[in-house]
Design brief:
The protein is mostly helical and 76 residues long. Helices cover 53% and strands 5% of the residues. InterPro entries: MBS1/2-like (IPR045230), SERF-like_N (IPR007513), ZNF706/At2g23090_sf (IPR026939), Znf_C2H2_type (IPR013087).
Length: 76
């Protein structure tokens, strides 16, 4: 078991190694995309990034269903 100065060196080396691993991974694109998808279709549960796309989706995929109230004032 390492003691004293050797233990300190080992901790520093491990911290540097962990920082390099974290830096090399970069950002997670899946997580960023998931955050951007804020509108969910009430019929099919498909997620969309903005209300205009949501309304276009709703009108093309679910023409017989009533339009949700959050899409009532939006023009496609």
């Amino acid at each position: 078991m390492a003691r004293g100065h050797q233990k300190f060196q080992s901790q520093q080396k491990n911290a540097k190694k962990q920082a390099d691993i974290k830096k090399s991974k970069g950002h997670d694109q899946k997580a960023a995309a998931k955050v951007a998808l804020v509108y969910t279709c009430t019929v099919c549960r498909t997620q969309m990034p903005d209300p205009k796309t949501f309304k276009q989706h709703f009108e093309s995929k679910h023409p017989k269903s009533p339009v949700p109230p959050e899409l009532a004032g939006i023009e496609a």
